[in-house]
Amino acid sequence: MQYDYNLSRIYELVINSNPCYAFLLEGNTLAQNKMVIAHVLAHCDFFKNNSYFRRTSRNMVETMTCNAQRIAEYEHKYGRQEVEIFLDAALAILEHVDPWEHLSIREPDEEQEVTTEYDDLFALDKPKKDNHAASRKPKRFPKHPTKDLVKFIAEHSPALEDWQRDVLYMLREEMLYFWPQIETKIINEGWATFWHLRIMRNLDLTEDESLEFAKMHANLTLPSRTSINPYHLGHAIFEDIYRRWDNPSLEEQKKYGRKTGKGLEKIFQVREMENDVSFLRNYLTKELVEELDLYLYQKVGHEWRVVEKDWEKVRDGLVENLINGGFPYLEVVDGDYNGSGELLIAHRYEGKELDIVYLEKTLPYVYLLWGRPVYLSTVVEAKEVLFSYDGKKNNRQLL
Fold first, then answer.
1. Spatial distance between the Cα atoms of 341 and 370, rounded to a whole number of angstroms
2. How far apart, in whole angstroms, are the C-alpha atoms of residue 327 and residue 348?
3. Which of 218, 217, 262 is nearest to 241 (CA)?
4. Number of Cβ within a 10 Å radius of residue 292
5. Residues 55-79, mean pLDDT to the nearest whole number
6. Closest CA to 99 of 354, 234, 352, 275
7. How many helices (H) does the chain have, and how many strands (E)?
8. What is the pLDDT of residues 223-274, one digit of tens each?
9. 116 pLDDT exceeds 70?
10. Distances in whole angstroms, Cα of residue 152 to Cα of each of 96, 124, 325
11. How many Cα neighbours within 13 Å face the side chain of 204?
12. What is the mean pLDDT of the chain?
């Protein structure tokens, strides 16, 4: 909307692929496109070398083209409105995937038998197995709570048709492609800003181009009173890292054993290993928090007020907002709740309550995807509450 009303400009679009694609506005001036190209080159470097992008599909442009074609075919076959309704429901839960599923380590469901020469003696100490009791014990479904709500519904929903499962898998694949970008917004934009500044300073710009570039860079890194500008914060942290490792103080040399001239080596190491959470946790210093005048604020009564200036609490507050991409951590804990195929989801509450209005508007979408009543447990005002939707209305009850 801001773009349509000419209140903001989208100078470029860069796509993480192999090779990377970048699109620049035809209406940009030459100086603007020089800066955009410099910015884009650093993004491409980040996509290629940051460890969080290591498993990213580099063929997503072609994949999305095929996905769009398949969805168009479903619209033709089942009707555009039917497909749009389903897409609305799928998009309502799209953030709830598990990008680190491949790292999950589960304990074996049964104890492994170890054969030794003393088995006959050990067997005397073991309680006898009650096979009838084991058969009566209800099996958990899923065996372990799962974070990947989209995948679980796609695999197990009794209400979905084949084309709907296909659409869910398509959207999940695209979300997993975007997830590293969600987790690296600050560090990625900081890296691109750090390098476009140096590249532009090394170009033979005219006086007018230099002035135009200075205005663009200033607008790009302008701090906000109400939100974090990733270009501003990320760039400031990279500049600070470069300075502290390239020209460390005597105290830093003695305390950490730093040698001079290691600034570039260090920032390339940071670019490779960190995401936003670790970037801020490890490199947002007391001096930077004070220099950038960072703070935490919240609504007190009818007013918004600054509530915290202590640098560690400010840093930790910013980090907390970035965990799990800033989304609530939900898990499917029971796909056969009440023994009738209903779906129970648990919010892993860590001090932040869910948006109740958003929650109650989302549950009907989950119901549409699952086809049976759905439940979500969370904490509201220090009390455990179970929200549910049965196909007709929202309900809530204290646990």
1. 9
2. 11
3. 262
4. 18
5. 95
6. 275
7. 16, 9
8. 988 899 999 999 999 999 999 999 999 999 998 999 999 999 999 999 999 9
9. no
10. 10, 43, 20
11. 0
12. 91
Q: Is the peptide bond before 19 cis (omega within 30 degrees of 0)?
A: yes
What percent helix, strand, coil does the chain show, rounded to 5?
55, 15, 35
Would the pTM count as exceeding 0.90?
no
Beta bridge partner(s), residue 296? 308
Report which of 296, 295, 283 is spatially closest to residue 186, judged by C-alpha positions: 283
The pLDDT confidence band at residue 365, using thresholds 50, 70 and 90, is very high
Judge whether 363 and 388 are in contact, CB under 8 Å: yes
What is the chain's length? 399
Residue 22 three-state SS: strand
What is the reported pLDDT for 126? 60
Q: What is the pLDDT of residue 395?
A: 96
Q: Which residues, 6 or more positions from 354, have their beta carbon under 8 angstroms from its beta carbon?
A: 328, 347, 378, 380
Task: Give the integer Cα–Cα distance in Å for 179 and 52.
Answer: 9
Alpha carbon distance 185, 274 (integer Å) = 11
How confident is the model at residue 139, as a pLDDT? Answer: 73
